[in-house]
Description:
Elements: E1 6-11, H1 15-22, H2 26-33, H3 42-62, E2 66-71, E3 83-88, H4 90-97, E4 105-109, E5 122-123, H5 127-136, E6 141-144, E7 147-151, E8 154-160, E9 163-167, E10 175-181, E11 184-190, E12 192-196, H6 204-207, E13 220-225, E14 239-242, E15 248-252, E16 258-261, E17 266-269, E18 275-280, E19 285-288, H7 292-300, E20 303-304, E21 307-308
Parallel strand pairs: 1-2, 1-3, 3-4, 4-5, 4-19
Antiparallel strand pairs: 6-19, 7-8, 7-18, 9-12, 9-16, 10-11, 10-15, 12-13, 13-14, 15-18, 16-17, 20-21
Helix pairs in contact: 3-5
Amino acid sequence: xxxxxxxxxxxxxxxxxxxxxxxxxxxxxxxxxxxxxxxxxxxxxxxxxxxxxxxxxxxxxxxxxxxxxxxxxxxxxxxxxxxxxxxxxxxxxxxxxxxxxxxxxxxxxxxxxxxxxxxxxxxxxxxxxxxxxxxxxxxxxxxxxxxxxxxxxxxxxxxxxxxxxxxxxxxxxxxxxxxxxxxxxxxxxxxxxxxxxxxxxxxxxxxxxxxxxxxxxxxxxxxxxxxxxxxxxxxxxxxxxxxxxxxxxxxxxxxxxxxxxxxxxxxxxxxxxxxxxxxxxxxxxxxxxxxxxxxxxxxxxxxxxxxxxxxxxxxxxxxxxxxxxxxxxxxxxxxxx
Length: 337
């Protein structure tokens, strides 16, 4: 680890910051004044967050680092820094990671009672020892694989850390597309398609029935969300694991379609007939402070039904007799491009 000369602290804006300090939303003020249950944690989370931002700045100054503070509403390339420290939760780390190439990152969970911080290496009240370990070069680190996304052969994002949702922008609409993987092409209707990295396998894709992958895994995973099969025949490609060097392709059949990258803030349009390609990125992300215990615990859960899916495995299981060519098959010849 290089000497910590220039460090970026990238902090989120709390709900209280946005709704009260910045916008002064009357409805939120009213709810807070009467102690409504829907905003009961807002003040506490705000206090904890700003206290943590100050704690992080003090810890970095204690090891001689020059600190630059920026907030989550501003994203740019961050590779001029020796370290990027995010203050918030996993969402803040995900957002900042899009501006980070080779620079290591440390996530600090500023409100551990109110936010998810699985990828955060430390938390409020425990920052200084972790900063000191990073400065000494003794802090644990893990390289996380990221995903590259292309539309019609042009890369639109190569730093996806968690997941992408391919779907109609209207939640009540059916998503229509052709899914191509390992020589199979299948027409599908569903609520959309989740594609995730190993790091993202604990998130939405797991709720949709996906597998838990090793934190160090370089595999991608896809799961069809709420498949629509009125004739009762299962899809041949309901889910699968995409190895490094492989590609997953989707051909859009919708007039309106979006790619939601690492959450709702990055939303990319896909036109009717366009091809979207997903593969493992050649830009992994280095995350500091994630303990070996957390990695080992994650690894312990990556053997499913006797199959190790940490770095290998195949979850593409054709319907019917195993050939996927029964009466319910929706497979088609691969399109020429």
